[in-house]
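Dissemination and training. As part of the outreach component of the grant, students in the summer workshop were shown how a complex can be specified as a set of sequence lines and then modelled as a single object. The example used during the hands-on session is reproduced here so that future cohorts can follow it. Participants entered these lines:
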Amino acid sequence: MAMSHTSKNRLCNLPTGTVVTGKWHGRSYRLLRRLGSGANGVVYLAESGRTRVAVKLSDDYASLASEMNILRRFSKVQGAALGPSLLEADDWQSPFARETIPFYVMEYIEGENFASFIRRRGKEWAPVLVVQLLSVLERLHQEGWVFGDLKPDNLIITGPPPSVRLLDVGGTTMQGRAVKEFTELYDRGYWGLGSRKAEPSYDLFAAAMVMISSCCPGPIEKKGDGRAQLLAIIEADRFLAQYKDVLQKALDGRYQKAADMRRDLLAASSRQTSTKNERKAAPGRRSRRQAKRRGKARGIVETVVIAAALLGAYGLYIYWQLAM
Amino acid sequence: MRTGTLRQILLITDGCSNHGEDPAAMAALAREQGITVNVIGVLDKDAMDESGRREIEAIAAAGGGMSQVVYAKQLSQTVQMVTRQAMTQTLQGLVNRELKQILGSDVSLEDLPPDKRGQVMEVVDELGETVALDVLILIDTSGSMKTKLPTVKEALVDLSLSLNARMGENRFSVFIFPGKRAHAEKMIDWTPRIEELTAVFPKLASGGLTPTGPALREAIAYFDRKRSLRSWISGGDEPYIEESSL
Ligand SMILES: Nc1ncnc2c1ncn2[C@@H]1O[C@H](COP(=O)(O)OP(=O)(O)OP(=O)(O)O)[C@@H](O)[C@H]1O
Ligand SMILES: [Mg+2]
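and obtained this result:
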């Protein structure tokens, strides 16, 4: 259940240095800073001895317990990291609340938010990262799950080399059931393009939306015919238009498997390398980099001038002292 | 474990009642009969006045359900969330009661060691997915709600999308208040498809009184009638056969 307002505010504003001690296992975690918060709780970066971990606190026992179930299941999957690994679960007898606050401790995944990574490094990273994402999804689907709440906020880019990891398993649902948690913009039901049954195609719709929203400058809001609107957005963007076939197929729910969408996206990406568009994009970036370098050179000149002026002034000062 | 059908009333309103019984008392009555009452307060632009907010919270508290005050824009997300969460809450209550019977003492989810809670939640999740659910939607159509009704309609269609993705059966029925002849007027009889609402909504006329309490009372009575009729006809699991008069 969603947290009540007061306790949520308190939990979201714990000062740095707060020590969270578990009453069952007795281990302590010193909070360093808040990593993020959402509908179901708040996540802090913390240290326990020398190791850095992420701690999720909530006043909702039920949703925390559900999330831990999924993290535990994920950790049993061989050969792929489907989410952060779960380290411990405990309750904290906090000084400010009469009740105890449940929390769990997980692996801290250091990295950058998906959207800001694309903004910083360029759109050409979007298909690369979505291809990676589709490998993870393929594995997750093979295990009988659907991620559910797939959106840029729940993806983190670690590295180097850059690679995608999933965060926040709150929406993860067994296939065949109703998707537990979702975000409107990435939900095919909201767009009138399918049900909320947990099936692989549900995630693949969201994967297409992740790519669209991260390449599209403005906020997207549904107006009228959702499908027509999304297709118009794709066509209006030079970069996205190159992936129109794959994206459209995913939006329409015509991919049954992540691996199929991955293959098509890869094929479309390698087809792009020699198009006019890319060549045009590249010089743009180079000139930006040059501009930066030029800026740096100007900085050096400025430093030299200032140093010379200071030296001159100092010389004058010495001269003046001696002359006295 | 057998749970039968979960029964909820979802009240959507934007302010204070001004006619008839205290709605919180009626909600308490519903709770006594195993019906959870959830309340969603819809805002336009300005904040809801304090007494409206207090009434909404009081109704939900008395009705054993959840309440939330939102702007019309967020309505869809909220309606489905509140309904799902109230369902989980009720099921958790049932599972907790079961636990108490097994363990003999006053034990709930919170008292279990963290590593054991997951097992309980698995049972709750499973039930939430498969249990049958009846939701009676009670919509305030008095004056100020008029502009919000298109959003309410959208939210309800969205709700059916979420609930119909479950494996369990759903039934919805829609009442509005104030009604023409009674305090609450039936718009849609029990149906798994709330989309039928689209046809009915544009015809809604808004009136002056806001008889929230009496409307709740009539909604409860409708649940009862339905149940007794169903158990009269069969063991209770047969699809509901509509009454000819009302
Ligand atoms: N293991 C982790 N390592 C690094 N950062 C994390 C980790 N877990 C969570 N975060 C950060 O904290 C934020 C909030 O966490 P999370 O999404 O789990 O909370 P939530 O309450 O479930 O939110 P939501 O509203 O998305 O459901 C994430 O978006 C992410 O930025
Ligand atoms: Mg999140």
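Chain A has two domains: 5-107, 112-274. Students were then asked to discuss how this feature might be tested experimentally.
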